[in-house]
Amino acid sequence: MKRLVVNADDFGADEGRNEGIFEALQAGVVTSLSILPNGPASKEGLEGLRRLTRREVSIGVHLNLSEGQPLSKPSPKLLTGEEGNFLGKAQTHQLLMQAGNPRLEMEIEREMAAQLEALLQAGVRISHLDGHQHVHVFPAARRALCRMVREFTIPWVRIPEEAPFPLGSLSIPKDLIDEAQAFSRMAKEAREVLRETGARAVDHFRGLYLKGVLKLSLLIQTIEDLPDGLTELMVHPGRGMGRDESNPFSRFSTPDREEELHALLHPDFRQALKHSAVRLIPFPEVGD
User: Fold this and answer.
1) I need a surface site. Which of 6, 51, 99, 119 has the fewest CB within 10 A?
2) Is residue 9 annotated as a catalytic residue, yes or no?
């Protein structure tokens, strides 16, 4: 049996991202989403979710240690710059490669807890956990991740471990391939650490090698090549909003977001699911 969770990341990043995800939810082609607790549009997005007519959707936390402002008080010092904002992707990733730094691990744990608490206080029933730019599987974050899974009883954790995608003649930058391979290696290590927590992970993960290139043809190829079992497909649909210097997430709202949305909404995607006997579902409840 082939079951597929299509999870939209970065909910709450901006109005355009929320709009695109809502379109995909209403169409039934996205079955799960992950919320940025510190996202500028998270509050409005949560209000929209409460009014959503389609209810078969799992809602998770998109833990963020790299963009925007932290939620923990007092503000972390190692994770932020002079203005109190997170350090950005490259610098944060370099920092999180450290292991055995008690002060850094304490800051990570406090910030993760603050973000989870923020969603719980907003009434979100957290079904799964993943990380913005996969920060949760980095060496410095793994101990804190295990503590959060236990403390907040998180049923599912994303393990972004993925074999190279057969891109064929498609040309993508080598640095993106290298990044996907690095994430996959760290995810494999994190899987071993997480085993003792009892958290569940899907059988297969897809999306690392599709970032920024997810056109309809590749989406269909992904569906046709799905193995048996439960797979999570990470997607980033949205509507372009243009650059907003006051929003650190706005640079991610590019035309690629709309291209992903159009691919997901295309009738050929549904046809591919039917032809390959793939069942779309949210993250299953514990015991399912």
Assistant:
1) 51
2) yes
